[in-house]
Amino acid sequence: MKAWQAPRIPQSVVETPQAPARVRVHDTSRSQLVEVGPEQGTARFYVCGITPYDATHLGHANTYVAFDLLNRTWRDLGLEVVYAQNVTDVDDPLLERAAQTGQDWTELALDQTQLFRTDMEALRVLPPDHYVGAVESIPEVVALLERLRPTGLVYQVHDPEHPDWYFACSEGEAFGTVAGLPADQMVSRFSQMGGDPERPGKRHPLDCLVWRMAREGEPSWESSLGRGRPGWHIECTAIALEHLGAHFDVQGGGSDLAFPHHEMCAVEGTSATGEPFASAYVHSGMVALDGEKMSKSKGNLELVSRLRQQGRDPMAIRLALLDHHYRSDWEWTAGDIERAEQRLARWREAVEAGALGDVVELATRVRTALRTDLDAPAAVAAVDAWLGAAGATNATDDDRAAVRELLDCTLGILL
Ligand code: ZN
Description:
Low-confidence stretches: none
Number of strands: 14
Radius of gyration: 22 Å
Bound molecules: zinc ion
CATH topology of the largest domain: Rossmann fold
Helix content: 40-55%
Number of helices: 13
Largest sheet: 5 strands, parallel
Distance between the termini: 31 Å
Number of domains: 2
CATH superfamily of the largest domain: HUPs
């Protein structure tokens, strides 16, 4: 699948020997900040993508901007980055929505994927190097399941009509170590998140669907497992292993994905390769609107595309998101975008016309904030304080260019 268009980002040449030399983020599986990515060379990460049946809302934007900070922070440290992301372009919610609206499911998926890409381009989110649809990854999914079959962990349920294939998560390597949930909570959470703990014929309630056998009226593909389509967890596992290899640096997504999704991806991946799936599992907070988590099923959404249609500057939308730490849960209000627009105007005015302080000092503060658990609010506050500080001197055009480059390459804010 075609990735969205990459913004050209500069590499800031300002040297900051006092900023940390590595980036640390919060790893859910160890409940602490850990260094992620190599000291030099290539960092590899995977962020779970959308199911394209409805427009990109601010909860999505919050997640992809958060992981864009990680991508930019690695690049700013001089690392190469390989970034993979999926598009769940065949799944129950997509097929249900298409059936409700009378649309062709492939057209719905293409339209919504295109809208997502346009939103991400506007927000200056760096595109994944591998942007891969579930449909196009079916050969990799089937190959992974074939690789797992000799372990005995992949089996068919005893259901003569629909003998779907499952993966025995609870018997696999290191199950339960990503989210660290107690067993009873795993089952209820699995059920809440669209799992099927009560499906008759499974070996264990927490086993997950990996290949759904063909149903009348549903899309399906021929495979060595019979005609069918892939389950969600195995889709991400197969795409990550195919494009990043075993034991990559970070698997990321919203905090609602820690269990079951990332837990089940990890156990599938680890059981297939004998190596850890990812080194760290990193999760962004949830964005609420009207007192509840923004979600398609509840219909309480603020859309990036709607804000853009209202004439909101995408850089102000991004700045509004950066004003919240990626791990916090927060509520979107109209005040967020207004504050961000005022801040953006202040920044632009100050860099255009005002006296500026020492650029190395600003760069040190911004980089230190971002390399310490991607603390964008601290970085934003550092810019505010630096621009408003006394003792600034007349700036040269080179100083202005250096500030613009710094803010673009680290925060993704184009002044
Ligand atoms: Zn995923």
